[in-house]
């Protein structure tokens, strides 16, 4: 039976308030790991108007100049214009960071402790994490979120190269994809809202974004005369970024993952070192799911794991191929368990996560980027051999 439906996903630019907060948190994390790979970091950031608030827990031997990191991160994003209320050189910074709780540390550390029951490295928290992969796109990601990210990247490229002077850092994109028989066939509509300087007219913004962003980035064969373009639908977007809206670390978890197409366990990524399974195990699940699809074992793979704080093994591992498995799913699960170890210490080692790679992951999705270790398809042969 034929099925037809429309699914939408959004992305946000580097200057979106929540992404400003994410980027500051990941910049602090990378600075810690660069000097001390064993740093324990849980860094949260709040940005609003001309203020940055840092909070969380950090235990590290690294020497950290928080003010320098914050200002350089904001400058890299692009809040450097004279009329910016939130400006790299003018923001006020409040630092409320303390050290990691020793109660948490003893659960994570690879040492015995009273009541722990073992001497292995344990998960930094309880929780559940999902990974997803499919064969819709070369990135093995859902179509709508990949297209939305491509639009955001192109906007940033044009802004930072000063192709047009009126683009400003805050931006959002959204793409709606029509599916027929579970395959993407057409772009139904595109929404772009971009912050801009006060002197540019809406008509000029609309024409430029359609011709030089949308039509450049999205496949021509996926659009037709019925595709609708909604550009800055309010008519004006001069006040943006933290001046216009409060930003918080970890508030764009759907943008960061699968655009709502794959499930999410609820834990955020940015500002967390890899002992936090919210981050590392979600990366692990993506790595596993991508290898399952790349191995031809299924067209779609969604993987869930769950952990208990301080415990080295996951309390569950579950795979759903959503009716696309080429072999029985129980065989896929068995092969995954043989090829991959989901212990937190093994995840960190397998993906080499104790290094400053996290600023690269902050914007335009944590998945679908070839230069990140959890995007490798280097376990395909082992999985096939197990099957």
What is the topological layout?
Elements: E1 4-12, H1 17-35, E2 40-48, E3 51-59, H2 66-77, E4 92-98, H3 102-108, E5 127-134, H4 143-160, E6 167-180, E7 183-196, H5 202-217, E8 228-231, H6 241-244, E9 247-248, H7 253-256, H8 277-294, E10 300-307, E11 316-320, H9 329-339, H10 344-351, H11 359-362, H12 380-386
Parallel strand pairs: 3-4, 7-8
Antiparallel strand pairs: 1-6, 2-3, 2-9, 5-10, 6-7, 10-11
Helix pairs in contact: 1-2, 4-5, 8-10, 9-12
Explain this structure.
The chain is an alpha+beta fold. Helix content is about 35%, strand content about 25%. It has helices at about 15-35, 65-75, 100-110, 145-160, 200-215, 240-245, 255, 275-295, 330-340, 345-350, 360, 380-385; strands at about 5-10, 40-50, 50-60, 90-100, 125-135, 165-180, 185-195, 230, 245-250, 300-305, 315-320. The strands form three sheets. It has a four-stranded mixed β-sheet. The protein starts with a strand and ends with a helix. The model has no long low-confidence stretch (mean pLDDT about 95).
Looking at this protein, list some descriptive labels.
387 residues; alpha+beta; four-stranded mixed beta sheet; 12 helices; 11 strands
**End-to-end gap:** 32 Å
Q: How many strand units?
A: 11
**Outline:** flat
- Helix/strand class: alpha+beta
Mean pLDDT over the full residue set: 94
Give helix % range.
25-40%
């Amino acid at each position: 039976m034929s099925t037809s439906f429309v699914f939408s996903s959004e992305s946000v630019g580097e200057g979106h308030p929540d992404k400003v907060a994410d980027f500051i948190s990941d910049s602090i994390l990378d600075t810690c790991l660069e000097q001390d790979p064993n740093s324990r970091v849980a860094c949260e950031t709040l940005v609003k108007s001309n203020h940055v608030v840092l909070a969380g827990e950090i235990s590290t031997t690294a020497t950290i100049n928080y003010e320098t990191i914050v200002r350089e991160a904001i400058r890299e994003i692009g809040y450097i214009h004279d009329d910016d209320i939130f400006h790299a050189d003018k923001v006020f910074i409040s630092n409320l960071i303390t050290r990691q709780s020793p109660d948490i540390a003893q659960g994570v550390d690879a040492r015995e402790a009273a009541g722990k029951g073992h001497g292995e490295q344990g998960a930094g928290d309880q929780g559940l994490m999902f990974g997803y992969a499919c064969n819709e796109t070369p990135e093995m990601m859902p179509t709508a979120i990949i297209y939305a990210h491509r639009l955001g990247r192109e906007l940033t490229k044009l802004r930072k190269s000063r192709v047009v002077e009126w683009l400003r850092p805050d931006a959002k994109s959204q793409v709606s994809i029509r599916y027929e028989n579970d395959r993407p066939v057409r772009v139904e509509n595109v929404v772009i809202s971009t912050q801009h300087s006060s002197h540019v007219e809406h008509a000029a913004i609309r024409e430029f974004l359609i011709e030089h962003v949308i039509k450049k980035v999205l496949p021509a064969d996926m659009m037709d005369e019925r595709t609708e373009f909604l550009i800055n639908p309010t008519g004006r977007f001069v006040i943006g970024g933290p001046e216009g809206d409060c930003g918080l670390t970890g508030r764009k978890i759907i943008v960061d993952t699968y655009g709502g197409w794959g499930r999410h366990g609820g834990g955020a990524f940015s500002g967390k070192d890899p002992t936090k399974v919210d981050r590392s195990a979600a990366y692990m699940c993506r790595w596993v799911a991508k290898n399952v699809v790349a191995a031809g074992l299924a067209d779609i793979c969604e993987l869930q794991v769950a952990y208990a704080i301080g415990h080295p093994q996951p309390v569950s591992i579950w795979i759903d191929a959503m009716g696309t498995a080429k072999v029985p799913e129980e065989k896929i699960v068995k092969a995954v368990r043989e090829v991959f170890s989901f212990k937190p210490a093994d995840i960190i080692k397998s993906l080499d996560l104790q290094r400053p790679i996290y600023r690269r992951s902050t914007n335009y999705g944590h998945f679908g980027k070839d230069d990140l270790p959890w995007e490798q398809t280097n376990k395909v042969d082992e999985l096939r051999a197990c099957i």
